[in-house]
Amino acid sequence: MESLQQAVFHRLLSRQLAKYLPENWAGQEGFMNFFEAVNHAYQDFESDLKQLERTLELSSKESFIELKDLKSAIDAAAMVVLFDRTGQIRYVNDKLKSITGFEELNTSDIRHFLLSNNPEINRDIWSCILAGGIWKGEYALQGKSGEKLWMKDTIVPFFNEQNIPTRFLSIRYDITYQIEAQQALKEARKLAEEALKSKSDFLSVMSHEIRTPLNAVIGISQLLLEDNPSPEQLEKIELLNFTSENLLSLINNILDYNKLESGKIEIEKIPVDIHVFTNNLVKSYQFKAKEKGILLHFEANTSALWINTDPTRLAQVVNNLIANAIKFTHRGSVTIKLETTTMFNGKVQLSIAVADTGKGIAKENFSKIFQLFTQESNSISRNYGGTGLGLAISSKIVSLMGGSIELESELNKGSEFTFSFQAESVQASAIASLPNHDRVNQQVLKLKVLVVDDNELNIFVVRQILKKWGCEVVEARSGQECIEKTKNCIFDVVLLDLQMPGMDGFQTMAELKNINIQVPVIALTADSDTEIRNRVFASGMREVVLKPFSQQVLFDLIKSTVSLV
Known about the structure:
Blueprint: H1 2-6, H2 11-20, H3 31-77, E1 79-84, E2 89-92, H4 94-100, H5 110-113, H6 119-130, E3 135-142, E4 148-159, E5 165-174, H7 176-225, H8 231-262, E6 270-273, H9 274-283, H10 286-292, E7 295-300, E8 306-309, H11 311-327, E9 333-342, E10 347-356, H12 378-384, H13 390-400, E11 404-410, E12 414-425, H14 428-432, E13 448-452, H15 456-468, E14 472-476, H16 479-488, E15 493-497, H17 505-514, E16 521-525, H18 530-539, E17 543-546, H19 551-563
Parallel strand pairs: 7-9, 13-14, 13-15, 15-16, 16-17
Antiparallel strand pairs: 1-2, 1-5, 3-4, 4-5, 6-8, 8-12, 9-10, 10-12, 11-12
Helix pairs in contact: 7-8, 7-15, 8-13, 9-11, 11-13, 16-17
């Protein structure tokens, strides 16, 4: 009894015992065990409560630290605004304050300060967030120094118990640098495109201005060659013709470089007898090789093989390789080898190798010679001439054709360039249907032709060529004169120059269509741009002839055009 009275109970239990039990409760049997158990329960509860308080305290500290770290991270990266549905600003973080200079809270309307300056964008924002949506977008606002700032913003609504959006959190990023960089890039691209167009326009004009007189020079020299000149005259005429062709080749290289830069070169697919084609190219250099005292050989493992390829671009590559081989070979020989291998699915693997016994190329300069405007050394340009465009352009053309150029060379022993590519073989039935064009000097056309050109030399050359083919030639020196003559006379074909003062070729063609004059028209132009060809065909003209032109090309186009009528 004495031990029970002296026992120390939990404060809460002692208070309850004193309040509700009589003074002699301790003398009753069984109370001691019961109240000891209750006391232990109170003590355990007290211990658990203290442990919980310590845990909550630590958790609150950790949560506070985490929230503080999160806020610091957001402040470092983004700008934050909290506002209500009336527009009043409730919170602005330091980063946004530092950029905009904004300080006032609760009394400021976000519509006037921290949203877009564009009323239409503002209406879109409020329409979206008041309907409970998340708005994302970009807009401009004014910085503290009056400068324009670009923001990328995401605005998220918070809802009350009635599911009505009452507050909105805006998290935004400053994208001014990116926007200004994009605008600068756009402006730079615009300037670059304008510069490229100016260069293209300049080259187009220069092409016309150079090709037009060159057309007369080449045309007249070809006519003179056909007039049975004396041996002394023949040598001079051949020299004139050869020089003119070289000048034309240089002009073509410069123009092709411009086209390659602007991505305007397209590879065509035309049936070609590769053996005859390559053999003819080699034959065209016999005179130059003989003049230098070197031998020119052609070897092939096939006698006849038709493929689909671009003969113009293929000739450009092969001509460049042969011309270079002859240029750099002073004694010995130049050998052109054509090898073909039939593959599956109608494909043919071809390689054209041009080997010489010339000066050779140092291995360290192999890649250098394929760069634009670059030659192996400065002495090459002084001693041999050239612009350093040929191999660079050839390499790009080969790449467009899906092929490759390989080089093997040894100084003072010679070089071998091998051009490899794949092409589709042409079926026998398709070959049989191809037109069989006879040579110019074997046929006559006997057509009535209207030649429209403002250049007297061009008219003279075309007139002489057409008369040789038995044609009746009528001349017009302007688009308007062309219209009048086609009204009063029926022509088999019209040769129409595109670049004439006043009414140009395209305007003339449009007027011919407008007054319903049905006559096949072939365009004559000194502009080699692909877009010009596309415009020619879109206008209703049947064909286009690039000046300077060969007589064979003109003959074939006139014949095929008239036969289609």
